Amino acid sequence: MSSLDLTEAQIAVHWKEEEYFYPPKSFVEQANLKDPNVTKRFALENFPQCFNEYGELLTWYKKWDQTLDSSNPPFWKWFVGGKINASFNCLDRHLATHKGKAAYIFVPEMENEPLQIITYYELYNRVNEFAALLRDFCGLKTGDRVTIHMPLVPELPITMLACARLGVVHSVVFGGFSGAACGQRIADSGSRVLISMDSYYRSGQLIDHKEKVDLAVATAKQEGQAVDKVLVWRRHAGQYHSQTPMVSNRDFYVDEILKNYTDQKVEPVQMDATAPLFIMYTSGTTAKPKGIQHGTGGYLSYVTATSKYILDIHQEDIYWCMADIGWITGHSYIVYGPLSLGTSSVLYEGVPTYPDAGRPWRIAQRLGVNIFHTAPTAIRMLRKVGPNEPARYNYHFKLMVTVGEPIEPEVWRWYYNAVGKKEAVIVDTWWQTENGGFLCSTKPALDPMKPGSAGPGVPGIHPVIYDEEGKEVPPGGQAGNICIRNPWPGIMQTIWKDPDRFVQTYYAKYNKDPKSKNWRDWPYFAGDGALQATDGYFRILGRVDDVINVAGHRLGTKELESACLMCPEVAEAAVVPVIDEARGRMPEVYIALKPGIQPSERIEKDVVKQIETLIGKIARPKSVRIVPDMPKTRAISNRMPVGDVTTLANPEVVEQIRVMVQGAGPVETTTNVAEDIKNFGRE
Ligand code: WTA
After folding, report:
1. What is the overall mean pLDDT for the chain?
2. Where does ligand 1 bind, in terms of residues with CB under 6 Å?
3. I need a labelling partner for 211 at 20 to 30 A (CA). Which of 11, 18, 60, 157 fits?
4. How many other CB atoms sit within 10 Å of the CB of residue 473?
5. Ligand 1, residues 283, 294, 336, 403: which to mutate, most atoms within 8 A of Cβ?
6. What is the mean pLDDT of residues 67-93?
7. Contact predicate 526/482, CB 8 Å
8. To test ligand 1's pocket by mutation, which of 405, 415, 545 has the most ligand atoms within 8 angstroms of CB?
9. Residue 600's pLDDT band (boundaries 50, 70, 90)?
10. Per-residue DSSP letter, 15
């Protein structure tokens, strides 16, 4: 590898060893997981039956016959023979004991709009009615796929749980993705029903969301998938807030049709434990996103157990995960894990800094939130614009979570001191869309915290660092590729319709014998660089593939590059990650133009527009640079030495670009704080 080809992991700053922080006694005493024996119980010798206790947290129609069927690696089958329904576990099973308890407390972005408190019984009713509509009005049945493109409102988990009740596989597309990106995912999943919403609040504005539907449907059609029904929830029932007309016989207002299903009940379908529950698309190394397929029994048991033991959720807690449900964090730790435990969760519609940087702490104070879950990008933003805000509010967190990207020790300390008021335990949870739930984290009552380190593998997860040649790197050694030695119940089942890519991407690298039927020969390759310290804690350095982690969200450089090539003037495009103060990483775009075309600001703007249209505003580059030719240039962007260029065909271009980038740079797309705040998290 040439020094120009630095991986994310190598770019990551070299942090010094950090001191430990210990959980307060009051936390330890009340914790769900305080038995130090857990490590032994979940040792590899006890694999896979150690995970039976996770399965036992759920309610089954029929118990499993086999904990793990590993006879066809790496297609693991958990809780084989078991029959279960995820919606039943999240709703029905709580009704006997706490049907009046709040499942969700929805906080609209506008502070003058009333809170919506949705009890378990009300959620159960609404899920049943919507399931009846999906079944009878849309004709959906077990095994069908449905694409859901919605903002963060209670109707989103209602829609997901209604699908789960019927055994319909949901594919939720993050609301901030463009219509074209949604259409591509509709086509890949083979959905003939799209569920959308007219509008939602963002930074005080009612944003038109339904406008994305027509392009989504057209894109899907181009790729061979017809959409015959679009269900449109309305942010305010009865009022339509969108500029685009409803298409007759295709688009339907949910609130109107739902009237025909008032108080109807739908028996949950008894699903095989191994039946797919949902698909979630995530970026990879090619331009085509991967449909990560999760199963029912394994996934649900894993998110339930980790919500209980790592998030330490108790019946009386008020839990708030500030993620969007359109990402895996929301699926696992806003919807399935917490609801399966019967948790009261806060759902907040808007940006954390609207109308000011005190908003999250005001919500926490008002609702009595005591478990708070967010990402470093939000922590950095809140620290930047309101470092002293938390002190102004009277709330008390017992536990706080960080997820999605490495957190700088400095930022960690602000989270601990200012947000947590030195009384909350922090868990830095490392995992991925593919994993279903946490892989590395400290056990909150048992392990000390270390800023910037995710910690050891959680119970039953056995991580290892391999070098490029597949040699194990011992604790205290250099950085390498973090892998997991064993399967676990939350692991994806496959890539939707692409089992070969599944094997290639996650298992081929370190599998020495493709014919082996022994799970020990199939370590899971995560695609992240990491270091293991002598205490066994893992420090995650970042992606080792062509994926950029922007504000905790994965974008493929190939997806971005192919969007740039949609501009007729562009001959070549290269996208590299650059360090950004608030978002961690941002994409930076380099383009070379076709012969005879003069560089212009208009072309730079068109490139940004194409990216926004084809992927979404979240992918907006930090800057677009028109260059004479195309080497890989991330070393230059990050102001590191250029290194050895002799292996390049066009070494002179590196110097030209270096002068451009480090010298009088071109116009950057906005990265000022005000813009950042306005667009925060959603774009
Ligand atoms: C990164 C999000 C450092 C990592 C749950 C991973 C992290 C990618 C952490 C997955 C963490 C996630 N510390 N890096 N605590 N958590 N990552 O699929 O690079 O959206 O591969 O899942 O985020 O992102 P994804």
Report:
1. 92
2. 282, 327-329, 403-406, 428-433, 454, 527-528, 540, 542-543, 549, 553-554
3. 157
4. 18
5. 403
6. 98
7. yes
8. 405
9. very high
10. P
